[in-house]
Design brief:
An eleven-stranded mixed sheet has the order 3-2-1-4-11-10-5-6-9-7-8, sandwiched between helices. The chain has eleven helices and eleven strands.
Length: 323
């Protein structure tokens, strides 16, 4: 029986490229570093009891924290298709989303299979009333701070009106993490001219211009995102995912090419793992997908960021924006 708590979050330990024990260690680090003002439910596959209980015993002050572990029979793997994942009713991901849908936890964090998480979230967690599709949303570093990019993988193709909704959701997300009240919006395209792109792009351009007026900067090319010209960049999931994976690949290339010659502060600026949490915007409950390859340090950052968004009631703010 899951005990009631004012603000209880779920951490799915299974399914990432890293060991679930590493994810649990990152969670314990967060708790020790001051993340003990909420209640935690870690969800793990049976067979990990001894290893996880041993990790708990090594941590001081844990008796003052409400942290439980729920053991389930199954886990979604990176090789699972969304269909096969949906059949694993007793997986940590599926059980976590069931608890979220029933209100037994307030938010869910996972490093697992992205496609499975998106599909299961849409099946189990209601969308906001005015949203037809959720958008996978990330923060990327720029010369002026960071920018919100959505969609980066949830929807291969979207309608122009859905891009306008993405912009509204991105703006609401940014308000949770920044003090600025207004955001500069841009549409990711193959050129900056108004006539560029498909017919859908051109329609979306007109609609965004009408809604945001002077706050709509127009089209933006991929290379200009990192200059910090826009605060919120909208695109379809196909283009957005290629953009994100290319950015990650460029960082890895520079790291391999320059190695120790790449300054630490520059490594920090470029490293995608500093912004590991992707929010599935548009759901009525908070679901955050952390990068499956994230190391312990970036997992700690990701969980802290997840807690910040959960305690800021991101989904409620997005609902108000869209209403």
């Amino acid at each position: 029986m899951i005990k009631a708590f004012t603000h209880r979050v779920g951490i799915d330990l299974m399914g990432g490229d890293r060991s679930p024990v590493l994810v649990f260690r990152a969670l314990l680090e967060v708790v020790q570093a001051g993340g003990g003002d909420v209640s935690y439910l870690a969800i793990a596959q049976e067979g990990l009891q001894d290893r996880l209980e041993l990790e708990k015993k090594r941590v001081s002050l844990l008796e003052k924290v409400d942290l439980d572990i729920l053991y389930v029979k199954d886990a979604v793997s990176m090789e699972d298709t969304p269909l096969s994942a949906s059949r694993k009713k007793a997986s940590s991901m599926s059980v976590g989303l069931d608890l979220l849908a029933r209100g037994e936890i307030s938010a869910l964090f996972s490093t697992g299979n992205t496609g499975a998480l998106i599909t299961l979230s849409r099946l189990k967690v209601p969308l906001h009333p005015t949203v037809s599709r959720p958008a996978l949303t990330v923060r990327v570093p720029t010369l002026t701070g960071s920018a919100i990019v959505l969609d980066v993988g949830a929807n291969v193709a979207v309608k122009p009106e859905e891009l306008v909704n993405f912009a509204r959701m991105g703006e609401a997300y940014r308000k949770c993490i920044c003090s600025e009240k207004r955001s500069k919006i841009a549409l990711l395209n193959i050129g900056s001219e108004e006539r560029k792109g498909t017919e859908s792009h051109r329609i979306a351009f007109k609609m965004l211009q009408e809604v945001y007026q002077q706050d709509f900067l127009g089209n933006i090319e991929g290379g200009d995102v990192f200059a910090g010209k826009a605060d919120v960049i909208v695109t379809d999931g196909f283009t957005g995912n290629i953009f994100l994976k290319t950015a990650e690949g460029v960082f890895e290339f520079l790291l391999q090419l320059l190695g120790s010659h790449l300054e630490d502060d520059l490594k920090g600026k470029l490293n995608y793992s500093i912004y590991p949490g992707s929010v599935l915007c548009g759901l009525s409950k908070l679901v955050v997908k952390c990068h499956g390859k994230a190391n312990e340090e970036s997992l700690i950052r990701g969980i802290f960021g997840f807690l910040q968004l959960s305690k800021a009631h991101l989904c409620d703010k997005i609902l108000r924006e869209l209403s």
